[in-house]
Task: structure prediction
Amino acid sequence: MTPNTRFVEPGAWEALQASFRWPRRTRFNIAEEVCERWARVAPDRVAMTYLRPDGETRDYTYLQLSRASSRLANALAARGLRAGDRCAVLLPQTPEALLTHLACYKLGAIVVPLFTLFGEDGLRFRLEQAGVKALVTDRDNLPKVLAIRDALPDLQILYSIDERIAGTFGFWQELGKAADRCATAKTGPDSPAFISFTSGTTGPPKGALHGHKVLMGHLPGVQTHHDFLPQSGDRMWTPADWAWMGGLMNCLMPSLWFGVPVVAHRMTKFDPDHAFWLMKAQGIRNAFLPPTALKLMRQSNGRAELRSVGAAGEALGADLTDWSSSALGTQINEFYGQTECNAVLGNSHTLFPPRPGSTGKPVPGHRVAVIGREGRPLPPDTPGEIAIHRSSRSMFLDYWGRPGVKEDKFVGDWMRTGDEGVMDADGYFWFRARADDVITSSGYRIGPTEIEDCLTGHPDIAMAAVIGVPDEVRTEVVRAFVVPVTGQGSDDLAAALIQRVRERISPHVAPRDIRFVDSLPMTATGKIMRRVLKADAP
Result:
């Protein structure tokens, strides 16, 4: 006997959308859903395989995760962590990171996932904003925390997973002294679960507070994006950090809910050749691969045989989707969402034919529209702003510590994403640009995404970012920053790139300036920070 793993039944996409109904639940807890229910009926089922940096692997069953997370919950409670308190996780993909999530959900505490890439200033800002009381980290990241600890009066409980250091508690030593049974808090769908900070593409990061229902909100999308997860032999991996909504809720937690084993692995820096090796060595059948990773993998000669691939975070472009069929063994199902409300649009090539460049159709259970300035849905083929209806189960509860700011993001019942797009007559959505990334030139409104896709389609270009720079005559002109595959640019290559855009898209969107760079400014989630390029533009 196994728990139910069918959230969406196979069928025609339109019929699924029309017939879908969210389950009515007064009690809902992420730890119960992704771990405890499996531990009761399939205790020896493998939930996670941890591939250590030294190449050794260890399997963790649902029962082992249940017992260990209960020990941690009891240890944290003994140290004073209570329901509603915030506990930060500053770890790469490790068993301890997952255990901390599960333990906090059992207590009714609120998790604050943090990227290990953050420096002292980035950590201090988020820890202060969230009023974090407990933090779990490792030896690599502990020095950053210790350096700012005096500025964090709320931080009272500090765990190190590697060894006990002065001022910290030893993670595994504490677990060894605690009981392995813990009653799960009686949380509801809207009870706070975690705070996910926005990536800061449009300004200072904000802490989006999500309820336990956010897991439920992701299940229809993850199931359809991965062509009806779970299937026999499915095994999931992502290089995305679990501190990002993509790694946490597009991969880790839904996979555990579906009973699909997750492979966890620390990657200090993404290596495309290592990624291909890992997928083969670990028998990966399903992967969530952010566009930045896919662009780097395209430069490799590696090959994989996957059953399903999901991608989100940045628009993919036709070249990447064409490449994936031969290099990965399947088409990429691109999907769309934001930190505040994720996995609401997507593709599923087993249900309807993807259209290159489209982010797909609304996922069953989610209402998405393109709206005008007054907040009303626009007719097909009319450009506007992509918006998500308030009723979405993956909708955030509020911005932590920012009263009133949430409603500024809404017009009526529609959450404005800040993304310009269009819906065609067949219901496919097309992302054009962040509203603040749109370039106004000679009366034209130009989105950077299509130009960037064209530039990276050139075999000598690894990555590209496009911005508008002020121009007295045209208001703005297009400037492109490109990262050459070889690291070297030339006047001939610049001319070829400009001509490529003129011929393949239109002369009026062609860059008037090409800048060759070694790298592009990116958020910790791999999104290009065009605002940084704009700020630095002369």
In short: The chain has a mean pLDDT of 92.
